[in-house]
Model the fold of this input.
Amino acid sequence: MSETILEVTDLKTQFYTERGVVRAVDGVSFDVKQGEIVGLVGESGAGKSVTTSSVMRLIEEPGEVVGGEVDYMGRTIVGFDDTGEELVPRDDMLSESEMREDVRGNEIAIIFQDPMESLNPVYTVGGQVKEFIEINRDIDGKEAKAEAIEMLRRVGIPEAAERYDDYPHEFSGGMRQRVLIAMALGCRPNLIIADEPTTALDVTVEGQILELVDDLQEEFGTSFIWVTHDMGVVAEICDRVNVMYLGQIVEQGPVDEIFHDTQHPYTEALLNSIPRPDRTVGDLEPIEGTMPGAMNPPSGCRFHPRCPDAREPCREVAPEFRVAAETADGSPHRAACLKHEDVGYWDAGPLDSGASETTPAGADAAAEEGER
Amino acid sequence: MAIGEQQTQEDSDGGGDGVEANVGWRYTLDKIKSDATARFGLYVIAAVATVAIVTTIDANLSRLTLGRVEDFALAESVWYHPERHPDPGTTERRMPPFFVEGGSLEHPLGTDRNGRDYISRLVYGTRISFFVGIVATALGMLGGVLIGAVSGYYGGWIDDVLMRAVETLYAIPPLVLVIVFTVFVSGGDPDITYAVFGVGIAFIPVFARLIRSRVLSVREMDYVEAARATGVKDRDILRRHVIPNSFAPVLVLATLQIGVTILIVAGLSFLGYGAQPPTPDWGEMLRISHQYMHSNPWMSIWPGLAILITIMGFNLFGDGLQDALDPRIK
Done:
């Protein structure tokens, strides 16, 4: 197994609003190994982007990382000491200028979601790629320009040298996304955080970009954290997956295991809601309701109000995140569901309120569960 | 044609919000060219600028070659020489323009109370008004952009301190502020230079507030976040990414503000806190001439017209620029 480069342990990030404290990320743990693509999946508002921003220490007022640890290749990005009363930042935590000079860009880079908004409209595309390369690598202007053109060519922009002087509005969405990838890769980072980079693109372009990333990843050996809400994309490129719900990771494991040996009802529901050519709209099983706010998360299991499999204990007992199934290669497949705990889940009846809210689709799922 | 290409590109993108197509000098210039009033404003500014530049060269050349500005041909009639014109004679003083009885083509717009040629003084007044307008506005813009951008970008206590200071400044009427500033700094010996600095400072709040409000939205843009995530220093983000993208409305305001500045400085000169005699300044000319409103109204009309036309030029151009830079107006 290759070396672990990023280790996130029990990360907690909060936002202080007038209406109360929003626990956007509430105890998230995962790791990234050299050269792999790790997926971070979940609905909007699950805390995916806050997690990645926390890893980069880019959380701004009124938000704050309040707990947990982020370790990047032996360096402490986030770390706290427990003084008994409160958590204080640890001494070996990287300073703001160390983060800026040693980590952001040249070690960990981000590709943002919206290619339309992520390029500065007043500068040429090439100039922006060059700026980022110059800041993060020790090369002078001329070399940086050559490198920028080379990166643009590598990400599949035709006539890269001529297009170097074009402005962002002269590029299409897919081409801009390629530019963003060139900007990130041009800094030669070890890890790239891709924050829903294909969400704003149409499907054919999305396919091309995924293929490009796959090729480049093989060539440069860069690790990726791929943030998305699309299980289809996950299946296509990820090695391992973390499924997030309401600020917590509910299931974690190798991609094949997640798809074929699903251990958490939420993941299952996500998988059932993917449109597929062999199913009509009527066959889709969208997840009922919307995700509750992170300000007052439901008691017990956070997914229980929407869970088709919810039973009485789910309302009171918060599930533990623990190994839920054996995997072929020995890497852990964890899930946070009471089904895998000894708290009387299997003896209890279904939730009353849950039952009344359950749709036919949900009822089917529950029935299936019962037959097993 | 390049502009056409941009347009098609924008259309084919579909998702374009229109803001991005409206950037770049080519687009802005093209837009102004197609706007008749803006074009007219530009012509007026160009004409005034030409006069201002030519007279500046003229005055400087005469200083170089002849040692004294008063000795040069055009300049000669502008400055008053008691030695050379010991007594211009009553017929030479306060002459009306040529089309009024008593006027002559020798002094087409007449003379002032000292017998100096009015049209020369008007022409020389152009460079003072023009440069005063631009320099004072530039000072205000520079200070305002710096304070407003820093304030909006960093936020927190920096924002509080800077903006409270700016608001205090904003609460004082500009004319009062400039007069107090001029009197204190010059030590009771007012001059146009002090007036320019004073007006520049008085205009800082307008620019600071405008750019701050823009910076507040620009700093949330993804490209700013991307720069931060790539390790760009805050100072460089502010300089390279935030300010250029917040600048369009500032440019429009500056153009309109030049007219206001000219008016205020003229007002200061009129009140005696700006240009001092014998400097040929429009405001100063108005100050002298208002005593003769009944006997010779033309002495007040000419500088008034000059101020009006110049300000109109800047305002028309500013309006056109606003239309060209405003993404909502297509």
Confidence is low (pLDDT under 50) at residues 1-22 of chain B. Chain B touches chain A at residues 5-6, 9-10, 12-13, 15-17, 19-21, 23-24, 155-156, 221-223, 225-233, 240-241, 244-245 (CB under 8 Å).
